[in-house]
From TrEMBL:
Its cofactor is Mg(2+). GO terms for biological process: CTP biosynthetic process; GTP biosynthetic process; UTP biosynthetic process. Residues 57-194 form the Nucleoside diphosphate kinase-like domain. CDD domains: NDPk_I. ATP binds at K65, F113, R141, T147, R158, N168. It comes from Acipenser oxyrinchus oxyrinchus. The keyword Secreted does not apply. This is Nucleoside diphosphate kinase. It catalyses: a 2'-deoxyribonucleoside 5'-diphosphate + ATP = a 2'-deoxyribonucleoside 5'-triphosphate + ADP; a ribonucleoside 5'-diphosphate + ATP = a ribonucleoside 5'-triphosphate + ADP. SUPFAM superfamilies: Nucleoside diphosphate kinase, NDK.
């Protein structure tokens, strides 16, 4: 099993196997993990996409900040979004470049805490993710909780894992337009994977 997993990972890394491998588009090439009820098309990257169900394809940028990564909270944070019913379409661990951070926080550049914020965000790796689903921007802000962990309710991510505004563990886009801008800033299009959740009809009436 371990050997199988290793060879699968090696194939993915070497590009021999891909979730969005270009295929011919005939019916027989639709993989088994696609739900039988969805109508498939293949986009210009050769990725399968399901027919769009209103509002379900909203996307947001979530990032586990350096304190969250250092404290090994990545798994628990990912679990919350998976369990809520959202779909992971992009994920990477990276040391954020200063130009990305300054664009990301451009509206805060006059705040007194801005220099410390950039230092904090570049103090170690972050895990950037794109999550997709109905109302994901607003719902994920509710899951994340108040910017100031002292005001964040228990049960929210900040309310459960942090105590001070200078180390609040996680970022979540605050609007649909902001999310689109942030996703473009942090991810290349080709890093995002269109795929069908096999349990889609358990979360949505399709
Ligand atoms: P948000 O992350 O909840 O959207 P924003 O107001 O957009 O909150 O602020 C971005 C980030 O800047 C916060 O998550 C936090 O890390 C940092 N920040 C905001 N206000 C303060 C502050 O008063 N002191 C220190 N850091 C702050
Ligand atoms: Mg914000």
């Amino acid at each position: 099993m371990v050997l199988f997993q290793r060879s699968l990972i090696r194939s993915l890394v070497q590009g021999q196997l891909s979730l969005c491998a270009p295929l011919s588009g005939n019916e027989s090439s639709v993989p088994a993990w696609c739900s039988a009820r969805s109508r498939h098309r293949i986009d210009r990257h050769g990725c399968y996409t399901t027919s769009v169900i209103a509002g379900v394809s909203e996307r947001t940028l979530i990032a586990v900040k350096p304190d969250g990564v250092q404290r090994r909270l990545v798994g628990q944070i990912v679990q919350r979004f998976e369990q809520r019913g959202f779909k992971l379409v992009g994920m990477k661990l990276l040391q954020a470049r200063e130009d990305i951070l300054s664009q990301h926080y451009h509206d805060l550049h006059k705040k007194p805490f801005y220099p410390n914020l950039l230092r904090y965000m570049s103090s170690g790796p972050v895990v950037a993710m794109v999550w997709e689903g109905h109302n994901v921007v607003r719902t994920s802000r509710l899951m994340v909780g108040n910017t100031n962990p002292a005001e964040a309710y228990p049960g929210t991510i900040r309310g459960d894992y942090s105590v001070h505004i200078s180390r609040n563990v996680i970022h979540a886009s605050d609007s649909v337009e902001g999310a689109q801008r942030e996703i473009q800033l942090w991810f290349d299009r080709r890093e995002l994977v269109d795929w069908d959740c096999c349990d889609h009809s358990s979360s949505y009436q399709v």
